[in-house]
Amino acid sequence: MQYDVAYALVWVTDGGEVANRNAAYALASCPACTTVAVAFQVVLVVGQRNVVVPQNLAVAGNAQCRDCTTTALALQLVATLRELPARMCRPRSPRRGPVSRGSTWPPRTWG
Questions:
Q1: Rounded-to-integer distance, Cα 46 and Cα 17, Å
Q2: Which of 36, 16, 18, 40 is closest to 27 using CA atoms?
Q3: Is the pTM of this model over 0.85?
Q4: How far apart are CA 5 and CA 42, in angstroms?
Q5: Which residues of 51-85 are buried (b: 16+ CB within 10 A; e: fewer)?
Q6: Tens digits of residue pLDDT in 27-78
Q7: What is the DSSP string of 41-60?
Q8: How far apart are CA 67 and CA 90, in angstroms?
């Protein structure tokens, strides 16, 4: 069995479009195997935006394997905030997954 899980906390503070991409790829070429890929992304948008187009991509593929189970899942949560959180609400010790691209303070803009 092969499992791959990635998560990211992304802050968008620059006032531009919100078009963050989130992708999970599960590809298998083995006898009777299980492959799972999960990508979870939380996008926190500070302030008003006119364009919000989050993108999720999940690809699961088997190559010449009849007894394989291959699953991919990409999930994204986009939430808007009126302003940056108060200092007491800011993360104290950020936790990061294998491919985290955020979860630090002060917030950074990604994507």
A1: 12
A2: 36
A3: no
A4: 14
A5: eeebeeebebebeebeebebebebebebeeeeebe
A6: 888 888 888 999 999 999 988 888 999 999 999 998 888 788 899 999 999 9
A7: EEEEEES--S-B--EEEEEE
A8: 47
